[in-house]
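Extended Data, panel c. Modelled sequence:
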Amino acid sequence: MNKIKREDEVIVITGKDKGKRGTVSRLLGKDRIIVAGVNMVKRHTKANPNAGQPGGIIEKEASLHVSNIAIFNAETNKADRVGIAVSDEGDKKRIFKSNGQDVD
């Protein structure tokens, strides 16, 4: 079970965008994610008329390593760690480490 999932609200804890918040838009493999509106980079692209893509400088989100982000706890208004709790029936759920509340 992944500790970070799509549509989770996360906060950047290190790097040039430290302190920015956003939602996870894509997961790339096990250790990289893309957060909406965070880690913006400029890419010089060549026009592709067959695909209808114009050329120029395009600004888009680059991936971040999972270790550079933390899930945002709205109750405490801070970054938090995620733990996995297993119920008696064997069901797994994600919880915040600071207060034991459910993430979902």
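Strands lie at 9-12, 21-28, 32-35, 40-45, 56-61, 64-65, 69-73, 78-80, 82-86, 92-96. This feature is highlighted in the accompanying rendering.
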